[in-house]
Amino acid sequence: QVQLVESGGGLVKPGDSLRLSCAASGRILSSYAMGWFRQAPGKEREFVAAISRNGDSAYYGDSVKHRFTISRDYPKNTVYLQMDSLKPEDTAAYYCAGAPYTLGWRLNYSASRYYDSWGQGTQVTVSS
Length: 128
Description:
Elements: E1 2-7, E2 10-12, E3 18-26, E4 32-39, E5 46-51, E6 58-60, E7 68-73, E8 78-83, E9 92-100, H1 103-107, E10 117-118, E11 122-126
């Protein structure tokens, strides 16, 4: 497993941008596929975005497609989630997660059960 710490959350207005960071320690992040999930109060955890181990493939949930961008910085052992055109419905706790790069993950990157390392979460609130 890898230890993950998210940062960058906060209170923003609709239409604003925010960048979340996920810093890893322990195992080398480059051996993991990475993802972002979010959970709003009273709702189930929702897949947001994922990126492959070597960064050549990125995947997005329908609700954030064309607004959010996932990326990774190997020297810094960090994964980012750039969030643009934020909407009130994006309000949630955002979690970074790491997954062993297996065939199971490649076929099911949006399923939280394929991730074995999780951060503590960072709150994003979008409100006017």
